[in-house]
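Training component of the fellowship. As part of building independent skills, the fellow (R.M.) carried out the full modelling exercise for a liganded target. The chosen ligand was MRU. The inputs are recorded below so that the supervisory panel can assess the work.
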Amino acid sequence: MLPTIAWRGGSVIMIDQRKLPGQETYVRCRTYIQVAQAIERMVIRGAPAIGIAAAYGLVLGAMALTAETARSLDRDFEKIYERLERTRPTARNLFWALERMKAAYERSRGHGLRSIRTALLAEAKAIEREDAETNRAIGRHGQALLRDGWTVLTHCNAGGLATAEYGTALGVIRAAAAAGKRIRVFADETRPFLQGARLTVWELDKDGIPVVLITDNMAGWFMRRGEVDAVVVGADRIARNGDTANKIGTYSLAVLAKENGVPFYVAAPTSTVDAAISDGGGIPIEERNPDEVREVAGRLVTIPFAEVRNPAFDVTPAAYITAIITEHGVCRPPFEKSLG
Ligand code: MRU
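Fellow's submitted model of the complex:
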């Protein structure tokens, strides 16, 4: 299984996703600031993996706490919490994991620093373990939607690298393949960060699942030609009504899928659902460094100071989504009811 992130000997180790597939190297974080920077710089990415990383980041922060009074302890904990929270605004799982960690802190804070550290490490490990189990369950439910011989299109990377292991969208594909179905995957390249080309193709190839790399602007044409049987993507945040934020380009795919009568599935754990947000209009969308668009693999592809927009995510209205697959089953519209 893919070693996305692990707690080892008092530090956090992550595979460096910026270097894949060329190099399989690992980054070791010894402080919560290093974890926050690793999330911001995309060493680790994908909503559930970001949540797990932040949880371990809080553990590292707690290891360095020295405060004597309850008040100063709370203040120092809050500082660590806020730094990790500021890393990536769209991924709901980041805030969900941090909220769980805060609850563990509050339960243990009356029992001294040692208990706090033990409780936080146990909670972070539980978040990681449960995510792996959740993805298997998503896979089990979702694979029933895919038929033998189908070609499935996916966008970005919602695989083992984006989670504790196995993946959400790729979990569905993996489970279908494990059930003996012959599934072929079209992987969108996913400009500007190329998660599809670099990570999804790498993962599926390692698993022996046939994968064809296409550029993002080819998807519509293949749908029109009847070469795509289903689209399966992950999610960064899902509003109560089912509107779904995912990697930029997902919305266009969903519109194309509807136009061409192709089912459009979102695979995500319920920890991605934000019950506080009624519809997609309330989802914060991260804007990233313009150089990610100006450059490809570190090489300038335009004039040096070209004006750029670089939203990392878009929102697909629920009306374009055939079903949302969670660890509890396949949710159909109206999502307000089926997700609740
Ligand atoms: O910017 P990224 O690479 O973190 O974006 C990742 C995605 O959009 C994924 O589809 C999403 O987080 C789901 S991962 C299981």
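The panel noted the following from the submitted structure. The chain has a mean pLDDT of 97. The first strand starts at residue 5 and ends at 8.
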